[in-house]
């Protein structure tokens, strides 16, 4: 099977591409970050540009794994950067749908949040457009994906779990947004990739699946689990959420709307996805060692 993986240079995209290349012919799109992964064919292209769309359309693809997503556009002096990112995501989905191939869409559990944001609306829009497209597809919504560092791969944005693990290793105290009681269900990228591959090779009946690890943890518990794996004990310092929201307004790496909604629980029961794919999702307490 010949697969097109969008967002191939992202952390999730690179992990999936490498895993998929052991079984399929993988063409991974990258835009700015160079891509060097064993067995993966890199293609520098922008899904929004007509010339690149024509090149992609000529690839004789069997399926598309759509991982590329713009969370924010750093342009604080030019209005709402979240809405600008939403437009970019619409344009990318235009190209994906125009290919007329089966699609695995890597969405997000953010679609379940009660607090609205441009990012959540973008994910919901993409899911609805897929549902109305007439194409074969499946949707996977991962919660807090994590995995090992990949050789010869430097994602444009530093992976958050690696940043957290490094902070726990070096610092005596770890800053935590708010009360730290909000929950995540971290999913190991090997498990997520295997599940997406199983869906690709299966019926793809238009279902949407949440993807999480075997346990839901508060952010405080995530910090403690990483510290325990490193043989360390760190102090957690809880700081006001409003402070982080203001910091995000001047940073290109964070979306203020997502920081504002950080105290939403982002849990993802993997039972349904595991039953369909046969993948057993490991708990974070087991998978955390890949971060050390």
Structure described in brief:
By secondary structure, the protein is α/β, with parallel strands linked by helices. The protein has helices at residues 11-20, 50-57, 81-98, 118-131, 160-170, 189-200, 219-229, 241-248, 256-260, 271-277, 284-287; strands at residues 2-6, 25-30, 40-44, 63-66, 103-106, 137-142, 145-146, 173-177, 183-184, 187-188, 205-211, 217-218, 235-239.
If you had to describe this structure to a student in words, what would you say it looks like?
The chain is built from 11 helices and 13 strands. It is α/β, with parallel strands linked by helices and 292 residues long. It has a single domain (2-151, 158-291), classed as NAD(P)-binding Rossmann-like Domain (Rossmann fold). Strands 3-2-1-4-5-6-11 form a 7-stranded parallel β-sheet, with helices on both faces. Helix 1 packs across helix 6 (189-200), helix 3 (81-98) runs parallel beside helix 4 and helix 6 (189-200) crosses helix 10 (271-277). It is globular, with a radius of gyration of 19 Å. Residues 73-79 have low confidence and may be disordered.
Radius of gyration: 19 Å
Pattern of helices and strands: EHEEHEHEHEEHEEEHEEHEHHHH
What level of helicity do the residues show? Answer: 25-40%
pLDDT < 50 runs, ≥5 residues: 73-79
Total beta strands: 13
The CATH class, by name, is Alpha Beta
Percent strand? 15-25%
Structural class: alpha/beta
Net shape: globular
Give the quaternary arrangement of the chains: single chain
Integer average pLDDT: 91
Q: How far from one another are the termini?
A: 35 Å
Predict the CATH topology. Rossmann fold
